[in-house]
Design a protein that fits this description.
The structure is a homodimer of 114-residue chains. Chain A is of the alpha+beta class. The first copy, chain A, contains six helices and three strands; from the N terminus they run αααβααββα. In chain A, β2 and β3 form a beta hairpin. The longest helix of chain A is centred in the first third of the chain and has 14 residues. Chain A is elongated and about 55 Å long. At the A-B interface, α1, α2, α3, β3 and α6 of A face α1, α2, α3, β3 and α6 of B. The structure holds a DNA duplex (30 and 30 nucleotides).
Chain lengths: 114, 114
Amino acid sequence: MTDIMKDDYELRKETIDQMESVDEETLADLADLFKIFSDSTRIRIMYSLFIKELNVQEIADALGMQQSAVSHQLRILRRSNLVKIRREGKNIYYRLSDSHVFTIFSQGLEHISE
Amino acid sequence: MTDIMKDDYELRKETIDQMESVDEETLADLADLFKIFSDSTRIRIMYSLFIKELNVQEIADALGMQQSAVSHQLRILRRSNLVKIRREGKNIYYRLSDSHVFTIFSQGLEHISE
DNA sequence: ACCTCATATGAACACTTGTTCATATGTTTA
DNA sequence: TAAACATATGAACAAGTGTTCATATGAGGT
């Protein structure tokens, strides 16, 4: 290991002191979270919700997908607390539930653009 | 939509102005990136590399896995530029390739702890 | 109560993916 | 160059996942 790399790792190690207590179960949960982001349909759904909340049919139209497929994916997003719903008459409007979605998104984009 | 939510979305919309040009292909790439993080074996490998670089057998031992399985996963991580290698004699040492891995990790952990 | 519309759900199917086993590649040392 | 060791790779298999089709649930309007 070169000195430069060693320093790099020492620095990182300090930075992740808070992370050191992460156990196996948490790592599995982490993998499960990223699994939600790993499908392009779900990514596109979340992205469409960045601008404004939409109901199921609006999402399906925007993505050129069947209502059923969208509904199945929304179920998964809801179960993981990534989206929340609001009922208005017959329609159900979906929106992103917290800002972590945005942060995870933008970090991913930053990695890609290199 | 309530006024509070409207404000929330207006605010978010401003924040993601830079994101607005994201096209379908980029979203697919994004999903592919997160797909790498979506397997607990790969997550555990990356986590083990936070502390210091390791060779293949050290990773396999640390995770209680077969060398072959680890090697297959390392291949995937390498292809996505998430790890880099350094040869030292017969051994090949793996290390994380950039700090985005760390950032993506910690954002994920933050979401989980809620 | 009935019909209509929006959404959800279950089963079936094709496709993807991670692991194992066996073996190949490539490097060091005798 | 041959043996020993570390790593990579290909084929096969089991398990998981997203979509479609058909249908169920639930709310509003007549």
